[in-house]
């Protein structure tokens, strides 16, 4: 999860988030090089009094500064499209989890099992145990297995919500009357926090999401104790 005064992304816990972080670094380096070049040219124009007329009117220079931005845009667009298709690709899921947004809590349903559904409310600050996070803890965590493809079906029963877990690179809108789909897969166990990312009313900031990702063996034990 994020820590105070953090400037970058949270640590990636899924392959998609790792690809998004690589793309972010790739694009940021291109922006840094362009900004440095522009700043260098501006400083030269402000400090140099001589002007070379053949350079100012050369067709070669105009050709270069027309083609170069197009090449840079292609270098940004190709990896972006690759990640976009990776995020939309739906493989054969090992588990399906249905998520419904409400004002102001989430409800979850494991559609592969009968009668395994529950609501997840934020834990009030006065009921927090030592070490728990204010405004991020819930009374019922979502337990999921690691290293398995999980299909998320996300919708809403009242207004627009957005089911978001930054560490996993997942952000999907919950729209009334529409069922959105997302793929979730984690590379390591852990507890991952998220929040509703769509302004949905007075208590919008009190809709946390907590995922507890465990190995398959522990997930099966949790299922046996729950069912």
From TrEMBL:
It is a multi-pass membrane protein. It comes from the Eukaryota. One of its GO terms (cellular component) is mitochondrial inner membrane. InterPro entries: CcO_II (IPR045187), CcO_II-like_C (IPR002429), CcO_II_C (IPR034210), Copper_CuA (IPR001505), Cupredoxin (IPR008972), Cyt_c_oxidase_su2 (IPR014222), Cyt_c_oxidase_su2_TM_dom (IPR011759), Cyt_c_oxidase_su2_TM_sf (IPR036257). This is Cytochrome c oxidase subunit 2. One of its GO terms (biological process) is ATP synthesis coupled electron transport. Signal peptide: none annotated. Residues 1-91 form the Cytochrome oxidase subunit II transmembrane region profile domain. Component of the cytochrome c oxidase, the last enzyme in the mitochondrial electron transport chain which drives oxidative phosphorylation. The respiratory chain contains 3 multisubunit complexes succinate dehydrogenase (complex II, CII), ubiquinol-cytochrome c oxidoreductase (cytochrome b-c1 complex, complex III, CIII) and cytochrome c oxidase (complex IV, CIV), that cooperate to transfer electrons derived from NADH and succinate to molecular oxygen, creating an electrochemical gradient over the inner membrane that drives transmembrane transport and the ATP synthase. Binds a copper A center. The keyword Translocase applies.
